[in-house]
Predict the 3D structure of the following.
Amino acid sequence: MVLNSPRGTADIFGNNIEYRDHIIRSAVKLFEVFNYSEIITPAFEHTEVFSRSIGTETDIVSREMYTFTDKKGRSLTLRPEGTAAVVRAVIENKMYAAGATLKLFYIGNMFRYERPQKGRMREFWQLGIEAFGSDNALLDAEVIWMLNLLFKELGFKNLALLVNSLGCNKCRQDFLAEFGKYLEPLAGRLCGDCKNRAEKNPMRIFDCKKEGCAEVLADSPKIISFLCGQCRDHFSRVLEYLEKLGINYKKDESLVRGFDYYTRTIFEIVSEDIKSAQNALGGGGRYDRLVKQFGGPDIPAVGFAVGIDRTMMLMGQLGIKPGGKVKKTRIYLICMEEKYQDYCLEVLKYFRDKNFICDINFSNRNLKSEIKQVGKNEYDFAVIIGEKEVKDRMVTIKDIVAFKQHSVKWDGEKDKILKIIGAGDNE
Ligand code: HAM
């Protein structure tokens, strides 16, 4: 029986590694410029870390968590997202300091029991940032700026940056009072889940993908109209900063995002080239109450996460190449008989010490089929070592691209060798 990987998971290799590395390298470079440092948290947490923060009525907590009981009867959950775990870590390790801003980034695999589709997986990778310690609108703008810049630098063009504000507790109470009145006569048209949500957490009705529920919401009041003076000011300032930075945005009054922890600014970046629901490349928002709710100090925070797999997939679909990587010279050493391996090892070590990508045949001694490997694996040079080469302490270098062959002495002619294989390209 052949075993497959579990549904909704994927192996990442070959070209995809190049895309993934490029995305991660571009992001980390950007994060460092904005003064973020890395944090690594465990892949699983106590279930409560997520259920208490994301919200029990959200899709993620109510049906998508990989929750299990360990051998001591503790309820643990594979992280469905990074924010709650980072908040837990910041409090536990007392990483905050009064008056200072703490800026963290992370890269990690996340797990959600979703219905797998193109761009929607059960194990996926995110890179994200979380900034703690300030409710300054400039910090919201900075975080959105980074999200926007990352995709620009990766080469994406048709992107829409959607922004909205969910206000504070007071705004939400005012909105929910009106929303409740609006829903009352229409409740019968909601799906079963949303009837339940209408009772327990009406905001979550905005997450429902069912057509009937979307129709009910079409004329509903929107939270943006219920913002208190301070929240309205905060949102206007965020938008002003974005304008100053030349960042195009679209106000989207229906944007709510699927987590209960958000307050004030929320945002999402979507690709307009893709029409499916999987067009969101990243999203985030402010969560000013979460640290306190976790038992920590009263510290505001804001952050975002980007889906690495989805970004890789869209780059492939849109023909965006992961450029920028300096190509290293690749050398393949063909050792014609096992008894020449001592000499080959000397040559192999030299090239590897010099930082060239260099490999050797470990078994097959057939020159023709080895040369085929060289072409298939995109090597630039083959270095052949047979009886004659060993006897005369020579190497035969085949330049695959220029179709040229050189016989060079190994001792005393290293400069010549480096000239042939283009020293300098390997740094
Ligand atoms: P999120 O919107 O749930 O936010 O996820 C961020 C990104 O992860 C999405 O835009 C998408 O690209 C990717 N993603 C989500 N689910 C999947 C999936 N099933 N398969 C593939 N990719 C997926 C968060 O996770 C928040 N923690 C963001 C945040 C950080 N808010 C504040 N700080």
The chain has a mean pLDDT of 94.
